[in-house]
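hiii, so i know i said id send this last week but things got crazy w the move. better late than never?? heres the sequnce for the chain we talked about at the cafe, plus the structure i predicted for it. fair warning i was half asleep when i ran it
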Amino acid sequence: MSGLSARAGLAVLLAMIVWSASPAPAQQDSAVLFRNVKIFDGNNATLSAVSNVLVRDGKIEKISTADIAATGQMIDGGGRVLMPGLIDAHWHAMLVRPTPMAALGDVGYNNLLAASEATATLMRGFTTIRDMGGPSFGLKRAIDEDLVAGPRIYPSGAIITITGGHGDFRQLTDLPRTIGGMLSRMELIGGSLVADSPDEVRVRAREQLMQGASQVKLTAGGGVASPFSPLDVSTFTEPELRAAVEAADNWGTYVATHAYTPVAIQRSIAAGVRCIEHGHLMDEASAKLMAEKGIWLSTQPFLDMSAAAALGPSEQDKMRQVVAGTDRVYALAKKYHLKTAFGTDVLFSQAMAERQGSMLAALSRWYTPAEALTMATSTNAELLSLSGPRNPYPGKLGVVEEGAFADLLLVDGNPLDNIALVEDPAKNFVVIMKGGKVYKNILPR
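okay and structure toks below
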């Protein structure tokens, strides 16, 4: 055998070994028929009559109370509840499992770690996430190409911050910064980028859009996790924020800002920002302004210190201020009927990520189960649609309707009566489907 043919034979053998060792892909049928289910459609506060739902080519083709004739896989729901897959509007796919220091380390390992977490996220019933900072473009591509099981990702790319702002994880030994000089490690891996003028902001925003960002994220004020960022500070100037808004608007999408305080919120709105992330320290005037301008609030039900368990004493002090503001931000959101999205903002804690469903259930402190589940499905999907032509998944998300993406959960129980069911997805989500593919089915065969 010639050297060339021997190498070709070896290549084939290796390919066969890799193929045989690879996990089987998620089940893909020409059609999947859910029979005998009651539907929470993502909008209505009551369940449908017992229905049948036909899924084909990744979308919901037909919903009917009458029998539907179809070939392919049949799933007998046994009267269980079929609902849309959950959406987390503030997630950090690349930053859930590593520690702050490890996130700056081995890129290859961190990507594999994020892939494992993406699969776990999907298995908790979250079929879509809006990634609000981190180098998630490659992970998104791997999920979209079926190399990794995970949720749909709406990526922001790198968080854009200022020197000393939230998202600046450099050490004091990295200072002074040389304008136009070497990038820091956090910037090189695409976690966050420092921009200290309108021109720098414009460049950094355009770089994220070039890579496929569906929205742009800036930090307009201080944050909990960053070591040199007091919670009360205001960071970007209005012209700097406006530079990002103009760049995003030119691409048909929007800017969201991390903002806790009234100054950060109101300055963001003046610059044209369309979504405020967090807002836990807002005042009544800020809430009223948001209502008048139709600005979205993407906030999180932080009720204890669990989210800061991996952080230092100064960061935990800042977290206490945020927790203290949680009841107020939801009270203002309800009083002024703000467009309110649900997210979790888990950072540096696999244990907290496992409580993703519990955080959704915690909304019952302020909302009915139907209101909370609507927020985590169709309302969050409405926020995602702000990406306009930059929407990586154009179509209907967050609803059980004909023509919508078949991102579906079959629940053993009625979450409209008992939202605590979402706290134990391993037990209670008996079928998980995304894009018409069954990723989990623990029903008796």
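btw DSSP finds 14 helices and 18 strands in the chain. thought thatd interest u
miss u guys!!
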